[in-house]
Amino acid sequence: MTSEAAQTAVDEQVPLIEAVQRLVRGGWDEVESSLVTYGEPIAVEGTRSIVRCHFLRSDPLGNPRLKTLAQQLANQIVNYCIPRTEIEKVGLLSPDRQIPEITRLANDAARLFTQTQVKTGEGAELLLYALLEKGLQIPQVLSKMSLKTSTEMQYHGADGVHAKLLDNGDLAVYWGEAKLYESVAKAMTDCMDSIEPYLTGTAHEQDVFLIRHYVDAGNAEVTARLLEYFNDKSILSANVEMRGACLIGFLHENYPSLPREEASVKAELDEVLSSWAKSTKTRLENRSLTKHAIEVFFFPMPSVEEFRKAIKAELRIEVKS
User: What span, in angstroms and rounded, lies between the C-alpha atoms of 303 and 5?
Assistant: First the structure.
């Protein structure tokens, strides 16, 4: 293909690029009152990965706004759990029927979360969804929660599937993994172990199968065009780039009151964030992942257990002791 023909092919993809970008629902303002973005994104040396860090925002008394974050994440469960086509159908109803249907969808979404497991990671998965969709404007293209066959089990495979079309017409698919541990080192190791098979091509077959059958852009034409990227008979299937998104949640002692105390703790936080970035580099190198683009979100929290409890409380799930 000549350079002119290649450019023509890219130009023809512009409407689809714009259509996929319009799939993003909402923005950072929906969680900004509970989250603080600390520092600038760090490009991990020798890799294509980016490290970002978010803390809970604190009130004037230094109390982290965990309950507020849990409320804001709970507000996202319809978009997170329910396929776009179902939501679009509600928008076509008469105004007097929309509210009952929206309420039904919210109840259906809440029931998809595990009801009895204590150490569930679904709250972290919901947070990862928000960081990708609200923060980086990368839309979810497959609602895996809607595919659960039992509310007492978490789904298998990647914790999230997001995608965006690049300016050159390639489709970047983001496999998400979210981990919550007391130890940051354990969370990092487990997260990298989980994401590695998806990026090296040894574990994503099942989720690609789900994409082929359940991807939903809320628009039949856009969905059909996206599916061309997952049809091995289409030349577009050669233009898919597998990327990663990792949420690393962990206990951080002496929790800072941000952003009010940022100046006094900046040196300490800069040092620890730098160490997390270096540890990320080591783990990427050990797993031969330096060529893959991965968004790595560090989320220190004052209590992992309280984070889980707060999410369950907002979803009206009885918290087992």
Answer: 55
